[in-house]
Design a protein that fits this description.
- Helix content is about 45%, strand content about 15%.
- With about 210 residues, it is an alpha/beta fold.
- Helix 2 links the parallel strand 2 and strand 3.
- Helix 6 runs parallel beside helix 7.
Length: about 210
């Protein structure tokens, strides 16, 4: 299965007893991929437990993979893809050896190319919003039009069309996708509706399929 999600939902600090329901309703609402961050308490346990419940065509991965040891833990837990905030060629090499898709973090043009040349399937531009958001993606796409870029940091429902128009292959989103209030209150119906609204908006955006 080709790894090409247009939206990666980022969950940091989610509670174990709540995760299973949230994962399923998010997938039902159309979210193609979920990333549980490594610095979430019990993250590897959650991924290990719910990996078998991931429906066909959906992805459950682990993010905030900062070093080789965390990458190994994610692989052992059964993560379907890895996401890093930094560019570490050793982590990329491990993912490649395990035949796992990896979205490697980068910010500068040199880091973007280094991550891609090392074997990243997609390069996570983070924190994208701090360097101009959609315009920065557009600037990077000038010389790096062959590199799939995932914009992370500062993506909202309102600027989503700008990111895809600028050339982003994917976006990574957390509270803008799920909703801060809905997450805090563990309001499953509202969470499902928030995800559905975001994905519906994404489908109406050029290239945001």
């Amino acid at each position: 299965m080709k790894f090409d999600p247009s939206v990666i939902g980022i969950l940091r600090g989610v509670e174990h007893e709540f995760f299973g329901e949230l994962m399923q309703l998010s997938f039902v609402a159309g979210l193609p991929a979920i990333e549980v961050t490594m610095n979430t308490p019990g993250a590897t346990t959650m991924v290990r437990e719910f990996r078998a419940a991931v429906p066909p065509g959906r992805w459950l991965g682990m993010g905030t993979i900062r070093n080789l040891e965390e990458a190994r833990q994610a692989v052992e837990a059964g993560a379907m893809f890895l996401v890093t905030p930094n560019c570490d060629p050793a982590v990329i090499a491990l993912a490649n050896s395990e035949q796992l898709p990896i979205v490697a973090g980068a910010l500068t043009p040199t880091e973007v190319y280094t991550a891609w040349a090392a074997g990243a399937d997609m390069v996570k531009v983070f924190p994208c919003g701090a360097l101009g958001g959609p315009q920065y993606i557009r600037d990077l796409r000038g010389p790096f039009d062959q590199i799939p870029l995932a914009a992370v940091g500062g993506v909202t429902l309102h600027n989503l069309p700008e990111y895809f128009s600028a050339g982003a292959t994917a976006v990574g989103v957390a509270t803008s996708l799920f909703g801060t209030k809905a997450l805090r209150e563990k309001n499953l119906p509202e969470l499902g509706q928030n995800v559905k609204n975001f994905m519906d908006h994404c489908r109406k955006t050029p290239d945001g399929v």
